[in-house]
TrEMBL record, chain A:
Coiled coil (residue ranges): none
GO MF term list: electron transfer activity
SMART domains in UniProt: ETF
Quaternary structure note: Heterodimer of an alpha and a beta subunit.
Cofactor: FAD
Electron transfer flavoprotein alpha/beta-subunit N-terminal domain mapped to chain residues: 24-214
Protein name as catalogued: Electron transfer flavoprotein subunit beta
Keywords associated with the record: Electron transport, Transport
Main function: The electron transfer flavoprotein serves as a specific electron acceptor for other dehydrogenases. It transfers the electrons to the main respiratory chain via ETF-ubiquinone oxidoreductase (ETF dehydrogenase).
Origin: domain of life: Bacteria
Listed InterPro entries: ETF_a/b_N (IPR014730), ETF_b (IPR012255), ETF_beta_N (IPR033948), Rossmann-like_a/b/a_fold (IPR014729)
Source species of the chain: Prauserella isguenensis
Cellular component annotations (GO), alphabetically ordered: cytosol
Transmembrane segments: none
TrEMBL record, chain B:
Entries under Pfam families matching the protein: Acyl-CoA_dh_1 (PF00441), Acyl-CoA_dh_M (PF02770), Acyl-CoA_dh_N (PF02771)
Matches recorded under PANTHER family: ACYL-COA DEHYDROGENASE (PTHR43884), ISOVALERYL-COA DEHYDROGENASE, MITOCHONDRIAL-RELATED (PTHR43884:SF12)
InterPro entries reported for this sequence: Acyl-CoA_DH_CS (IPR006089), Acyl-CoA_Oxase/DH_mid-dom (IPR006091), Acyl-CoA_Oxase/DH_mid-dom_sf (IPR046373), AcylCo_DH-like_C (IPR036250), AcylCo_DH/oxidase_C (IPR009075), AcylCoA_DH/ox_N (IPR013786), AcylCoA_DH/ox_N_sf (IPR037069), AcylCoA_DH/oxidase_NM_dom_sf (IPR009100)
Domain Acyl-CoA dehydrogenase/oxidase N-terminal: 8-119
Name of the protein: Alkylation response protein AidB-like acyl-CoA dehydrogenase
Cofactor needs: FAD
Keyword Oxidoreductase: yes
Domain Acyl-CoA oxidase/dehydrogenase middle: 123-223
Keyword set, alphabetical order: FAD, Flavoprotein, Oxidoreductase
Acyl-CoA dehydrogenase/oxidase C-terminal domain sequence ranges: 235-383
Protein family according to the UniProt entry: Belongs to the acyl-CoA dehydrogenase family.
One GO MF term attached to the UniProt entry: acyl-CoA dehydrogenase activity
């Protein structure tokens, strides 16, 4: 039986306007609808596929405020079996290193994990480093940017796709994988799944339960301090190419000048 | 006592179907509609989500939900497209529910699992070329043949939804099976599997609306099915399907509310983009008032169907409330479709904009599953008027 833990983050809906708090430049999570990050739905889907192909249990792990339970319920209604929710005021403003430590601490509370599946990049923070940091802390292989994943026994094979091309990776469990948009199309929860999710166990933990030093967490524990933030400038007018019969050439010259081709 | 908030699971379902309709149906359905093509892939996806099994118990392959869950799903589907919504509506409320409510254990085990997953579609044949409102005027006849083993069915049915798709599994037909002691017709319901010899499906109609849904005329010519295919009690067919129609009215009301809401959705977006005489048209009070009226209609109609569904689920009589909900919501759908196409100007008359499709799809809501006149007759009768 494979014990799979899926890392799920609740993020502001990308369709709504996203803002930073003026006082501390953290993300203003109240101003936008909070949803499960779509990439994490794909991570859940991949875990469910493994479970359905053989034997396994899928645990959802989420670090986030109380209202992140909605994201957890969505993952449970898709078919995950149980959840661990780390919620603590002390986490507000934590940076990626701190988040990775908290996740690692929480994994210690899940009875023997074999495989951790994360998204490759969260749509709000867009750090794209949590999975790697986590693998480092846990001392297990990291197989990031997976666009395809297969598990044979305890051997994990991954097609890792980046701008540089596709690399075939192989590792033994336990391991951390992060998936890209191409991995799968997540299912929609059924009503049966929605009803069942209400009864699935969600363990709520605080920082004190994890054995992580609270001093390393939160805004004050972050390695960098944000001094200033400004909205991104409005988009500049585009470049206009008049076509006097040599339009094609001009477009190519422009693109070459921008080092785009 | 008065609390109109949806329970968490209803809200989660509504949201899920909303997301599905917006991302999987909205981008593609216009093309199916113009080509008058049945969207098998969308139906398969809705089946995977369990939408065809919402009110059916899990032991028969359903989702273990209830009729209100079905209504919420229909509203969200119809908000984007009515053809898709009515495929589910007819498949569940007319196809699966008669079997679920009145079938024998064996009939339920045979038909419900595939109907609930959408792998098979069910249909209900009541209306005949000679009349739909007066269901008692049924001319289709079924007689038990000499050795008592089979029903022999003769007659025809018109406008039957879901009756001729590649995945149609079974059509429940009403037929005269004898004469009652009082001299009246004995009407019963009989299950006819698709492909039964003697059962022919005419080519699809060319319709004004619901163009991505499947509607056919059916002919029964010495069509033979085993006597066990009788659905429910002999001679109770009429009474039993009246209950099915009462429920179906609430479902059609939900579908109508969805269409009416879809009109508001489309207009809110359009009036913020379209300019005339130097302003966004949404800045003109004449437009704002139209949209305010549209919103008021859809809101009132929604409350009407929520309340009818609440009474149904509590097991209370809901005939009048169902008729009111259907009457009010089909009116709202027609009125909103007219206003929405007006707000869209010439684009409202173009097939590529959803509001034109809503306009064409709205009309049938005043006719199908009981015309508005029939709803008024029911309301009047419930008020004791004779
Ligand atoms: C220097 C610095 C300062 C920051 N300061 C702040 C701040 O003041 N306030 C603030 O709100 N944010 C701050 N952040 C962002 C915050 O650290 C990140 O939101 C958080 O650490 C996760 O990083 P990410 O979203 O970029 O994750 P990514 O690495 O992009 O996420 C990849 C995957 O990791 C998993 N994952 C990520 N986060 C979680 C989680 N919480 N629970 C479960 N799984 C998860 C998911 O599977 C996700 O798909 C800061 C980041 C940096 C680098
Ligand atoms: C696209 C589509 C799908 C359909 N799907 C199905 C289906 O799946 N199964 C099924 O069985 N049927 C189906 N129908 C049929 C539909 O239910 C009937 O069309 C409807 O019930 C009306 O019946 P009718 O067309 O025979 O009209 P009629 O009964 O002939 O009515 C004609 C007009 O007379 C009015 N009228 C009738 N009696 C009275 C009265 N006493 N007082 C005042 N006015 C009266 C009616 O309101 C109507 O305006 C469908 C129809 C369409 C168009």
């Amino acid at each position: 039986m494979t014990n799979i833990v899926v890392l799920v983050k609740q993020v502001p809906d990308t369709y709504s306007e996203r803002k930073l708090n003026e006082s501390d430049h953290t993300l203003d999570r109240e101003s936008a609808d909070a949803v499960i990050d779509e990439i994490n739905e794909r991570a859940v889907e991949e875990a469910l596929k493994i479970k359905e192909a053989g034997e396994g249990e899928v645990t959802v792990l989420c670090v986030g405020p109380d209202r992140a339970t909605d994201a957890i319920r969505k993952a449970l209604s898709m078919g995950a079996d149980k959840a661990v929710h780390v919620s603590d005021e002390a986490l507000q403003g934590s940076d990626m290193v701190a988040t990775a430590k908290v996740i690692a601490g929480a994994l210690g509370k899940v009875d023997g994990y074999d495989l951790v599946i994360a998204g490759n990049e969260a749509s709000d923070g867009r750090g794209g480093a949590i999975p790697a940091m986590l693998a480092e802390i846990l001392g297990v292989p990291q197989l990031t940017h997976a666009r395809e994943l297969s598990l044979e026994g305890t051997t994990l094979k991954v097609d890792r796709e980046t701008e540089d091309g596709v690399t075939h990776l192989e590792a033994n469990l336990p391991a951390v994988v992060s998936v890209t948009e191409k991995i799968n199309e997540p299912r929609y929860p059924s009503f049966k799944g929605i009803m069942a999710a209400k009864k699935k166990p969600v363990e709520t933990l605080t920082v004190a339960d994890l054995g992580v030093d609270a001093g390393e967490l939160g805004l004050s524990g972050a390695a960098a301090t944000v001094l200033e933030a400004a909205p991104k400038p409005p988009r500049a007018a585009g470049e206009r190419v008049e076509d006097d019969g040599d339009g094609g050439t001009k477009v190519v010259e422009y693109l070459a000048g921008q080092k785009l081709i | 006592m008065i609390d109109f908030r949806l329970d968490d699971e209803y809200e989660a379902l509504r949201k899920t179907v909303h997301d599905f309709a917006q991302s999987e149906v909205k981008p593609v359905i216009g093309d199916f509609y113009i080509r008058e093509e049945f969207p098998y892939e969308i139906v398969a996806k809705m089946g995977e989500m369990g939408l065809f099994g919402l009110p059916v118990a899990e032991e028969y392959g359903g989702m273990g939900g209830d009729y209100f869950a079905l209504c919420l799903a229909l509203e969200e589907l119809a908000r984007v497209d009515s053809s898709v919504a009515v495929t589910v509506e007819a498949g569940v409320s007319l196809g699966a529910m008669p079997i679920y409510r009145f079938g024998t254990e064996e009939q339920k085990r045979r038909w419900l699992p595939s109907l609930c997953t959408g792998e098979a579609l069910g249909a209900f044949g009541l209306t005949e070329p000679g009349g739909g409102s007066d269901a008692g005027a049924t001319k289709t006849r079924a007689t038990v043949d000499g050795d008592g083993a089979e029903w022999v069915i003769n007659g025809s049915k018109s406008f039957i939804t879901n009756s001729g798709t590649d995945i149609t599994g079974v059509v429940t037909v009403t037929a005269v099976t004898g004469t009652k002691p009082d001299g009246g017709k004995e009407i019963s319901a009989i299950l006819v599997p698709a492909g039964t010899p003697g059962f022919t499906v005419a080519p699809k109609y060319s319709k004004v609306g619901w163009n991505a849904s499947d509607t056919h005329e059916l002919a029964f010519d010495d069509c033979r099915v085993p006597v066990e295919n009788l659905l429910g009690e002999r001679g109770r067919g009429y009474a039993q399907f009246l209950r099915i129609l009462d429920e179906g009215r609430v479902a059609i009301a939900a579908l109508s509310v969805g269409l009416a809401q879809g009109c508001v959705d489309e207009c809110l977006q359009y009036v913020g983009e379209r300019e005339a005489f130097g302003n966004k048209i949404g800045a003109y009070q004449a437009i704002q008032f139209k949209i305010a009226d549209m919103e008021a209609r859809v809101h009132s109609a929604r409350l009407a169907y929520y309340q009818a569904a609440a009474k149904m689920l509590r097991g209370e009589p809901f005939k009048k409330e169902a008729a009111i909900a259907k009457l009010a919501s089909s009116n709202a759908a027609m009125d909103n479709a007219r206003d929405a196409t007006q707000i869209f100007g010439g684009y409202g008359f173009m097939n590529e904009f959803p509001v034109g499709r809503f306009y064409r799809d709205a009309k049938i809501l005043e006719v199908g599953e009981g015309t508005s006149e029939v709803q008024r007759m029911l309301i009047a009768r419930e008020l004791g008027l004779k």
